[in-house]
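Regression test attached.
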Amino acid sequence: MNDRTWLQFAYWFTHESLKIFTAPMSVYGGAVDAMKGWKYSRNSTMFWIHLPAFLALASVYLAYGFSVFERKDSKVQRYGVEGERTLPTKTLENIANTKFSFLEPNRKPATLESAFPTERAKRAFQFASLLAKQVLSFQPNSVPTRYRLALMKSIEGEDEEAREIMFDLASGDYGIYPPASCWAASWIIQAKEDNREVDMKDLGKHLKNATSWNDCNVKLVSIFSMVLEQNGLSPAAIDVAVDAAKRDRAYNLQLARLYSRINNQEGLRQASYAAEEFFGAKLNTGNERDDDRLAIAEVRMLTGRLPQAASVLEEGLMNNAKRPLLSLMLSNVRIAMFQQSIVPGQNGTMTADMARLESAIDADPSNPSISEQAARLLTQKIKPTRKIIDALRKQIDSGITTSESHSLLAQGFYLMGNEKEAIKNWELAIAKNPKDSNSHNNLAFCLFKSASPNIDRALQLINTANTIAPNNAEILDTFGQILMAAKKPKEAINKYEQSIAVDENRIETRKKLVDAYLAAGLNDLAKAQKEIIESMEPKPESDEDTKDSK
Amino acid sequence: MVPALVRAFEERKAFAEIESIAVSVTSGLADVFGQSHYREGNTLYFGYGIADQFSCVGKWDSIVTFLGISLLCVFAFRRSLVSGFATCSLAFFVWIAVRATAWVVLSLVVSSTQQTSETAPITVMNWTFGIEIGLFLIGALLIISLDQLFSSLLAPIPVEFINPDFPLVAIFWNAMVGLPSLNPEVPSRAMEIEDYAEEFPV
């Protein structure tokens, strides 16, 4: 192309370009003309033939575009529903809760293998966990999803991870989520049951949040009630126990026990009525279970209807005598009836209906309470019958007697003047219950007062008793006496003063303190103490016998 | 050429990027069709059925084959630069769409299969060679058809249809889509009475 042509082209191009700004139809007109040309060409036919392929491809990308602009929360909703359909949270909870043996004592802890035995079930579990992860990829803090995932981890055996998630959810950082609180509370209680080291600080908070949930395990509600009661919050404990009884009528029994402990007669009447109705109805179905009868008997005992309690147990034993739980309970009921029959007789002695205790022996000769009762008879100076003594001997021989029985027996022997037998029984009581401060104290006192005193052993025993119960005025008093016998008046003064600090009305101890002051040469203090005693004694002749209380 | 192309893609790590796009499209389609799934990296996990897992890893030869089909179209039909570029890029679009649709449709088919009893075997549809061949055929048809479509749209306007009053748009278009051998001739028309009147007013 020569210069002339270039110039012509430039002139033409400028001319045409300027037309765009001057002619009203410029670009549009050109495009329309071009379209007309295209319309009547072979290409337009080709276009219509091949358009379907384009539409097919476009529809795929349009669908994809729709998913890109789908709202995040609607995706979460969809995946949540799908996950719940694949494996409901309730099912996961049921499986995961088998790890808490206190909630379900009769079920084995489930593993992934045992809970999802078939291939299909395993896939469902796997898929549910994938869906949960997918939801978390949209909403990393979705609480219900994290809860589901934690349940799955717990089932898979990844306990530590499950625990971390659950405690995080239960901490309240994401608002209150009762299912997680329920799990956290269960975990703490189970750890306590297994004697693992655990921080009990948040148990109350978790239980409170958990029990606000309708689907919370009723056992947890009842445990919350017990925790409240132990912390001296009886009204709140009653509210929670009533709630438990509403959720499961079987818990009316626990409510009745609670009312009985706090001596609320009206509440006890209502709860025991409801419990008796519930367990009675269960018995009437013909499905005879020990628990139901025991519950009815216990309710009747709580409301003081002992003969009726005995009758329901006797009825149960009529068909089948080999029901050890019923026999034991019947024996206990009869012992309670026997205790009611103990009344003061003439000349300051006591009388009791021995036939009742004998019938308790008939019901269950191996009930340890029988030996306790028999031992108590000795202390109350009531002569037991031959049969009772035989039962007691048998229990002692077979070693099923309790520490309490031996302690009582020892007291009885000591009162009767049989020091040797008394010492033997106190030794047995201490062997059976090394934390029994009373037996330690009594044995120490006995050893130091005996004809051939063993001061060293007595000191050792009273020291143990003092360690077990540091603020017991009686033990401190005995300690002082033994120290005086061991010729350690200064230490004895210390113990007597501690005893008086616990209970300042102990005149006998004050008198012993005076002696100790004198022995230590502290005459001024002795004089001052004497004045206190005089001011406290309106009648100088009244004399307290400290031995009686032992 | 094909192995060299594969190597070139691999060396530039282009596969990972395209794979990720392919998985996104599949995931989106599955979402639209109500197929719940979980994506982990470039792997998709479906519920039951086909789709134990969907991964593009190791199946990259097919994209290169698709690229081959489109290049064939370009050379066989002597496409212009713009049209040829459109056809080549189609290889990726078609490849992704075809595979994603196949995955979702198969998983829909499997998950809608009634599995009445617990013990019945689970229907599993594996990604077989047969499916790959079928998809290749469908993809090839789509590419050829779409190549025709785009070339019909991107065709040069014949000279006789260009309005000599406003020729600039058409010429520009022809310069864009026409083959280099085409002669960009300046159209002209005979002078008319009005033109003389304009230039030499009486």
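Expected vs. actual: identical. Residues 544-550 of chain A have pLDDT under 50 and may be disordered.
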